[in-house]
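Exercise 7.
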Amino acid sequence: MFHTLGAKVMRTPFLLIGILGMLLSSGCAASVAVPALESMQELDYGGRERFVELDGERIAYVLEGSGARTLVFVHPWAGNLQIWDEVVRQLPEYRVLRLDLPGHGKSDKTRTRYEIDHAAQVVVGVMDHVGAGSVTLLGNSLGGAISMAVIRDHPDRLEALVLIDALGGGPVPGFFAFFIQQFFTAPLFSGADDGLVELFSDLFVFGANTTFNDRFMADLLASRDSAEGYAWSLAVSDYLRNATDYDATPWLGQITVPTLIVWGEDDWVIFPGAGDHLHESIPGSELVHFGDCGHMPEVDCPEQFVPVLRRFLAALP
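Solution. The predicted structure, written as tokens, is:
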């Protein structure tokens, strides 16, 4: 339904409010043509997933490739490691580590609190487990904030940093935080209208990759009323509450590794101005904007993102 609205139109918060009202009053249903999963444990990682227990918490990860340089990908809020599939497919010459953050994907969803600093510790814990020393760390949205926490606490572990529409360069727009906290907190999320869930999916990928959107939404709809779906809802809601005001500005000036910042020009979840702020705050950083691209370039516009990433990686010492 909402794929045809287009990114530039959806950037207007007042239109979002109108659409939200329409959904709540009409009860319109989503149309999803892909098979849905009954559990996030059924997510298809091609049998490559492994698990590590960190302080009693089971974390899923995938490690592939055998290149000299290790890339570590940290997925965005409410996502999982599948989000990087297309990008990783185009980087066969690198050793690539991906993980499901606590509360996401196939990782445990047993915590009562979900915070950026803890997630950063988990990322480093998985790196230690697979023997990854100094890495290039890439994070989108929440994953970007987590990546900035990693470099704050472990600057010796990073060779380079890639921030993709990253949280932490400025406050999340108030209307968006209000929308999520009001309509996707755990108690209400379980009974959310299908059309509202579809809108939630479209907020992040504005229709350029409808296959990804439909798969993500089908899994979301199928799991929302399960115990696991409820636990996932608790996790993502808590991450959002703890991340809405997250600001990495105090230590951005201390980042000395090569840093690439990329942003979709049609991202209104975290406005492009936040990318400008990151660029101005991180010495020597490079900023690239992608036209006709939303909050998740790795799935929305990989044809723009991957060449820029490859160029950046090739230039690293």
